[in-house]
Amino acid sequence: MIKRSLVFLMLAGWLLAACAPAAAPGIDRTLQSQPAVEAPAAPAPESNGFAKSGQDFAAPATQDQAAEEQRIVLMNADLSIVVVDPASAMNTITKMANDMGGFVVQSQLTKVQTPNGIEVPQATITVRVPAEKLTTAMDQIKALVRDSHNDILSENVTGQDVTKDYTDLKSQLANLQQAETQLQKIMDSATKTQDVLDVYNQLVQVRQQIDVLQGQINYYDQAARLSAISVTIQAEASIAPLTVGGWQPVGTARNALQALVNSLKFLTNAAIWILIYVVPMLVVIALPIWLVVIIIRALARRNKKSKVVAPEAPK
């Protein structure tokens, strides 16, 4: 019985040795005796975006989330609204931007003339607010109108992904900074005056390029952190319907009548410009030319008469 057991164990050992994979050529045999925990790590998942069976699905999601957090997107918005008092609305938007930690880029308050000949105020303002508060800021601006259906004339939100440009700028900046460090070491170790001057000129050029790249990176950082909102604010009187003798035409009649009024206004303005500006300018330009022509003709006639009246020379 003991002999049979020994024979069975010997056969089992021989089979296991025969089935074991041979060591790859060129690899140290001692690696085969290392503990299993020191075996090389499994290869990374393929780049097709799908996890293989039996693998953890949390890792790809974490990588995608990290990539999304590093993305640089410039978010901007444009609004055109109608309010009762554009000046008051502009002041409200200015206060809102300051309270959110932003600032006013530019603002302008002007007067425009309605088709009925009435002067009304109109404002334009551009503010920057934190990007995460862009939606909140736009909601507060749209809340200034009385009728959200008719008084919000246009609304546009745009996003520009500058991640690639931002990454390229960062890479170029790192390379230039390394070059600056090397040039500084070379200049410190240089002994000849000419060598020092040559390295110094190169160092100045590299530093100028670094300043330019740093400025572009700072712009992207600020633009990504603060979103721009441009708002055009019109008064309600500027879009009031055309009224003729208490009658308010609608549809095609209103458009045709408005076009007629605009055409007559254009012709009237053109006639005023011609009478007040064009005619006096033509007189100022043509009068000296006319006087010069008269003088030249008078001189020509005098010369002609002198030739006819002149006596013949004695023989």
Outline:
By secondary structure, the chain is α+β, with helices and mostly antiparallel strands. It has helices spanning 2-19, 58-69, 86-99, 134-142, 163-189, 193-225, 251-309; strands at 73-83, 103-113, 119-130, 152-161, 226-235.
Write a structural description.
The longest helix has 59 residues, at 251-309. The radius of gyration is 43 Å and the shape is flat. A hairpin with a 5-residue loop joins strand 2 and strand 3 (119-130). A 5-stranded mixed β-sheet has the order 2-3-5-1-4. Residues 1-68 have low confidence and may be disordered. It contains 7 helices and 5 strands, in the order ααβαββαβααβα. With 315 residues, the protein is an alpha+beta fold.
Q: Could you give the topology of this structure?
A:
Elements: H1 2-19, H2 58-69, E1 73-83, H3 86-99, E2 103-113, E3 119-130, H4 134-142, E4 152-161, H5 163-189, H6 193-225, E5 226-235, H7 251-309
Parallel strand pairs: 1-5
Antiparallel strand pairs: 1-4, 2-3, 3-5
Helix pairs in contact: 5-6
